[in-house]
Amino acid sequence: MRIGIIGAGATGLTAAYDLVGDGHDVTVLEGADEIGGLAGSLTVQGTPLERFYHHIFESDRAMIEIIDELGLSPKLTFHSTTTGIFHGGELHDFSTPVDMLKFPPLRLVDRIRFGASSAMLKLIRNGERLGDRRALEWVRRWAGRRAGDVIWEPLLTGKFGSRAPEISMAWLWARVHFRTFKLGYMDGGFHQVYEALLRAVEKRGGTIETGKKLTAVAQPDPAGPVEVRTQDGARYEYDKVLVTVPQPAFAQAAGAGPGDVLQRAEYLGATCFVLECDRSVIPYYWLNINDPSFPFLAVVEHTNMVPPEQYGGRHVIYVGNYVPRDDWRYTTDPAELLERYVPWLRRINPDFDLSWVTDWHFSKAGFAQPVVTPDYRESIPPHETSMPGVVLATMSQVYPQDRGQSYAVAMARRVVQQYFR
């Protein structure tokens, strides 16, 4: 078949890799000028680095398997990283169960309840049964009100803002259940995975075109070809199309009406600074900001996991956020936004000065995080669409697990198996 794939992120490229392997004529159309989607990369001192912080867990089997298929396993290393929590104006270690049991802002009984409730989430096999429960209500019942107020509510508020009280417990279960203490990272960046997929697709006769933003997809005759149009005026025809772009983008291109299931997904945008510094800023890989007054939710010092020598001796720090697309942190000029973040970075490290930053990069994505409420499961569209020749595989269909590279790879392989063979 002639197959068109919309989007060259993890889902689109994995599907293309499998489909060209089956002998199909495959073209991938990517709206951006680079591949990788939310795992797209920039360059720090000659080394590719993800625009938004990325790692995988030891439980991310689909991603680990495709890395092995591509012959890249020697580049994948699992690191014992450190985590901290900023609360009450202080940094607190939060890397191990022992750290958690020593966490000063909680009384001993609260720490025990927090640890026991977290262990319970690890033991629950089917977290979908928690889908109709609100996360904050659940954690306050089982972890205790104090642990809910100090640990969980600030993290949920930092992630989802005013929607935090509505977030489903199934989403939080997945965040705890599938995580491992060791984090995996590709030496030289995950960019290598997407480049290897691109090369493999092209070697087998497939085509990948960038700068092809989707504007319309239609199938006038249910038994005929699918028509795809892109912003540059190009027009394509395919026997079947796999759409992997965010659900709202497909809804607009397909002309979905207000009551259509495609219009129900609600997304937050993401903003992220990559700061190249001449010294370390925090003593952890990952620092959760458990203070709702802060304008960002996490600081990630990537070079506390990967040596700074890989980036010309620069210390690489991410400052990330999930925000509505009309929020000031999404719309403000990046240079001004960085200036406004400086006083808050000084609250974490009083010595921090903007002169430490030798260079910086700023990225944002309009559709980065679905808002997973208790009725979310009912609003997930099926992979089959109203057009017989069009299949949808997008991050909003990953449930209850959160969106991520491994789930994107797994979904691509499942959809190819089910709808293209």
From TrEMBL:
Coiled coil: none
A Pfam family: Amino_oxidase
Residues annotated as domain Amine oxidase: 11-395
A single MF term (Gene Ontology): oxidoreductase activity
NCBIfam families the record matches: PRK07233.1
Protein name (database record): UDP-galactopyranose mutase
Naturally occurring in which organism (per UniProt): Blastococcus saxobsidens
Origin organism lineage: Bacteria, Bacillati, Actinomycetota, Actinomycetes, Geodermatophilales
